[in-house]
Amino acid sequence: MTPLRGRISGRAVKIAAPFALVATLAPVGLGVAAAGGAPVQADLGAVFSADAASASDATRAPQVSRSVPRVSWTPAEADRLARKAATDKAVREAHVRMWTTEDLKLWSGPGKDANPKGTVKAVTEVLVTGREAHGRVEILRSREPRWVEAGKLSSSKPIVAASGLSMTPCAATGGSDLGLTRDATYTLRSLCAAFPQIATYGGWDNHGEHADGSSIDAMIAVSDTTLGYAVVDFLLAHASELNLNDIIYRQRIWQPGVGWKSMSDRGSLTANHFDHVHVRTN
Q1: Which of 170, 178, 195, 225 is the most buried (most CB within 10 A)?
Q2: Contact 126, 95 (CB under 8 A)
Q3: How do residues 179-223 score in pLDDT, each as one tens digit?
Q4: Do 87 and 145 touch, CB atoms closer than 8 A?
Q5: pTM (predicted TM-score)
Q6: Closest by CA position to 195, among listed 228, 222, 169, 163
Q7: Which CATH architecture has domain 80-154?
């Protein structure tokens, strides 16, 4: 008899819940009727649906009230955000590379209130954002935006004088480069700065090594060998920096890795380079 009792007891439990619900709903219906309304027929399906919806609502994330005001920026804050967005865009899109022509101060911005941020050395390749304001242009240093003086950048790698050399235009030539290449110009200007007593130089002309603008002549009196050899010594000391290919003086020629060699007689003091030092660059 015990197994049967267990089964009856379990069934009673299953049936009890619906009856409890009906018992709960009955007073509700009676209450409405007592108030003068029509009797209420309880819809059990609707009740179960309502219970399920309530359970779902309990686990749903709370909705943000639309009555909460949106964040509003002051004009100063809005301007700051706009400037930051413009800077970020310029940094992302920077791709133009240029060279500094001299040592330049770095600034945090273009305005008078900008702070100094160190320096960048001459002949340094930098990325340029394309933005310019108040006489300064924006570059990138370690991907950080910095501003430098405008007009101090070059699209090609500049020649900047090393110690003892110069890129100051030569007064003896009236500032003209005489149709020379960059290296030949560098050599001419360096000689001109180091030896102001030399009054005449030869540059481009339509013969020999001068035809391509790679060579110059420093004109020196035949008797002034002291000056002539001083020029030769200066050139030898800076041969690598000036990118020299050869030096000719007093019927002898010097070349890198070879040294000095005698030359055949060409028939005159000028042709044999007794009255000038000839220099050719690569």
Answers
A1: 170
A2: no
A3: 999 999 999 999 999 999 999 999 999 888 999 999 999 999 999
A4: yes
A5: 0.53
A6: 228
A7: Roll (2.30)
